[in-house]
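Practice problem 4.
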């Protein structure tokens, strides 16, 4: 029977926080935690690389709204997971990363102790909301509680907690202290601030007096989907979605313009608006494809994080929970006329944007048409609520506008930090934690090989997971940029790939290669009925 030590209090506290799944890799320095997991109800998913564990936790958090929890060792474990933490930080995804640390007697002395890393909390702090060392065995539970609270409060994000290995193994009083300590990082309630009440009154007045309102929805609005849809219908406002907000308002809703902020027709719509309501979005350069936002009238910005107001420079800033603010707006806003005229314009804008896809994305017309056909096949083969994890790849960029999504948090794409290799482990983390959900992967051949070893996790666990690999034998997006700058002269963008069909067979899973939309649709349907990952290679034209 394991001793009652600080590691046991850590695991007990994870259980008290209703953590059901953790992702990680055991090592000599964190074995005390793994000893306690033997008798825990928490499910542990062993990744093949700490970066994969981080992406799995990221996917879990995106789909569930709960923090993804990771266990790694110090040194290489922490440096390996840093990329995944950076992606979570950039996209405001709640995570708690727990790493071990060298013994307290060795901290900061550069003795050459195994896995020693200079200034590890400073390093992790670059990709986290906060990074802290637990200084005492008696504070393990309290520090973990605060880390969990901080990961979800205000603007969500990753929090790093490191625990020296001697503290993990230190005996403690059974039960321990469980009182939650207050966090200075928790976001104040909007209604407790007089200035915010005044801003709310100004926002309501602007909306009520507007004739051409527009709504922009980011990832921070995804948990207020019903309210945002109702507000759009109430004021007859076209809805524009960022990548992170894709699906928050169903893209078959007549008021939804979709994820098309980067198209000239949508920019014109914004310029002609008299009020734009931005909800839960940074309005970052990546959201806008590096073209500054131009709104014809006033801008109302709703967000948990006031630092986002620096990007938008809003006329009216409302800091707080989007769902609660939208609810208050609905209670005080009347119906606006003009429904048929607005929906007709939305339809016209979408048609214009579809024509402009090659011009806007820079993808040649023939290739863009082929990608669109394949995306249509995917949409037919998927259920309405299938969660698609899309990597940084040309088909995903076209999918932003041309792949309709009907539910919030079902198109997951690593926009802000923009790392390759996110899709496969993120989808694996989602499917393992939400097995009843249909989940799929869309990645390029280059991005797939960043985290290809995580394919083994899905194979070991027997999860149904279609993996669509867009094979253009290289970094296709970067190749296109190189060709545009100096035609015929390329460097570092062409790959000698493995045979992906044979790779799947080596893992003992079904695999196939397709060249047209009907073959792709059939393969996805077959993959959906298979209790294992299923590699579907799409032969892309180079």
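Answer key:
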């Amino acid at each position: 029977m394991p001793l009652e030590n600080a590691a046991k209090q850590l695991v007990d506290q994870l259980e008290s926080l209703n953590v059901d799944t953790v992702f990680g890799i055991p090592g000599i320095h964190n074995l005390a935690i793994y000893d306690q997991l033997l008798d825990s109800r928490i499910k542990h998913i062993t990744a093949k690389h700490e970066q994969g564990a981080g992406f799995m936790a990221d996917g879990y958090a995106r789909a569930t709204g709960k923090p993804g929890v990771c266990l790694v060792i110090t040194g290489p474990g922490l440096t390996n997971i840093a990329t995944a933490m950076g992606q979570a930080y950039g996209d405001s995804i709640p995570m708690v990363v727990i790493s071990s640390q060298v013994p307290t007697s060795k901290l900061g002395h550069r003795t050459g102790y195994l896995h020693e890393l200079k200034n590890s909390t400073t390093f992790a702090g670059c990709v986290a909301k906060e990074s802290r060392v637990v200084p005492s065995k008696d504070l393990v539970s309290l520090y973990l509680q605060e880390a969990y609270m901080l990961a979800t409060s205000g603007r969500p994000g990753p929090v790093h907690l490191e625990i020296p290995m001697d503290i993990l193994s230190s005996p403690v009083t059974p039960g321990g202290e469980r009182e939650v300590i207050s966090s200075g990082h928790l976001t104040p309630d909007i209604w407790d601030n007089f200035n915010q009440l005044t801003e709310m009154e100004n926002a309501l007045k602007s909306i009520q007096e507007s004739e051409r309102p527009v709504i922009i929805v980011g990832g921070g609005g995804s948990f207020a989907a019903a309210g945002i849809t109702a507000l759009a219908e109430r004021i007859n406002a076209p809805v524009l979605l960022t990548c992170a907000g894709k699906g928050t308002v169903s893209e078959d809703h007549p008021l939804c313009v979709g994820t098309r902020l980067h198209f000239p027709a949508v920019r014109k719509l914004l310029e002609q608006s008299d009020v734009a309501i931005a909800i839960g979005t940074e309005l970052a350069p990546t959201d806008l494809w590096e073209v500054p936002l131009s709104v014809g009238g006033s801008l109302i910005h709703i967000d948990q994080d006031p630092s986002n107001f620096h990007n938008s420079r809003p006329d009216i800033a409302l800091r707080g929970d989007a769902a609660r603010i939208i609810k208050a707006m609905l209670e005080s806003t009347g119906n606006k006329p003009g429904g048929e005229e607005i929906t007709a314009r939305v339809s016209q804008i979408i048609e214009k944007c579809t024509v402009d896809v090659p011009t806007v994305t820079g993808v040649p017309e023939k290739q863009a048409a082929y990608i669109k056909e394949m995306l249509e096949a995917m949409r037919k083969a998927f259920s309405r609520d299938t969660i698609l994890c899309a990597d940084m790849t040309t088909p995903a960029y076209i999918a932003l506008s041309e792949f309709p999504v009907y539910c919030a948090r079902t198109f997951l794409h690593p926009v802000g930090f923009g790392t390759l290799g996110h899709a496969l482990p993120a989808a694996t983390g989602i499917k393992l934690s939400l097995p009843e959900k249909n989940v799929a992967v869309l990645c390029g051949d280059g991005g797939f090989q960043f985290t290809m070893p995580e394919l083994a996790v899905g194979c070991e666990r027997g999860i149904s997971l279609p993996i669509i690999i867009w094979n253009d034998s290289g970094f296709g997006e970067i190749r296109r940029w190189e060709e545009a700058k100096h035609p015929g002269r390329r460097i570092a963008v062409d790959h000698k790939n493995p045979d992906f069909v044979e790779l799947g067979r080596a893992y003992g899973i079904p695999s196939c290669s397709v060249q047209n939309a009907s073959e792709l649709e059939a393969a996805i349907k077959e993959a959906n009925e298979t209790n294992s990952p299923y590699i579907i290679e799409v032969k892309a034209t180079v």
